């Protein structure tokens, strides 16, 4: 049987319309299979149909519908179509999670009960921090610290403006200029080719090289000098010791003679009788000399009239008579 072209076109059009409807429903999140459960949120955070539903990071369904709870918009009923056969305890909790790119997803945190959700049941919900809230919470301390830092900087600048009067600024400019000159001078000094430090190091290297070349000669000279010094020191010490020994010998001899009664000094030191006689002789001689000075006529007999001095002789020196 021959099929007409009109029939073919009609059948193809019907198939295309069916595929279009199914695709549109799929894109809208509608599906002919799966279980529907519900969750009521006060704010859906820009949630739309076909957004994913996750349990433990695994996508288990999609959002298939959003509807206001009442005319006062006290809540928004979200229809969740589960595409996987998963047991969800009744004490599970659904939250909204805003991702970085602006997509909002439903996260279901499983409870620990043994009674599970059935078709048409409603999940408990909790408000979680959205991306904006999380960013705000994270940035609040940083913003506070930045504000404190800016305030501190403002205080420092105000104090600097107060301290840095024109005279102080001029002084600081002079100090900076002097530092620049010092830096230039130091750079000139430290120049690896023409600097004074380089020349000094070169001279030191030359001197060190000369010392290295003349090291044996210097060692020999130092050895000779050390030997001469040792000999001189030894000779002087020996000479001093010998001289001291001679002096000690003479001193011992003199002391021995003083202790001996053979010499005059020894007799004077050791013979008490001789010492006493010498004292008496010295006293008598002193008396005689004093008498001679006082009564010269008694000893020199020159008289024009033949008379003599009738005074008696002195019995003691004149000094002792006063």
TrEMBL record:
Domain Mce/MlaD: 34-105
InterPro entries (alphabetical): Mce/MlaD, MlaD_Phospholipid_Transporter
Swiss-Prot/TrEMBL keywords: Coiled coil, Membrane, Transmembrane, Transmembrane helix
Transmembrane parts of this sequence: 9-27
Coiled-coil spans in chain: 234-261
Name this protein carries in UniProt: Mammalian cell entry protein
Native species: Niastella koreensis
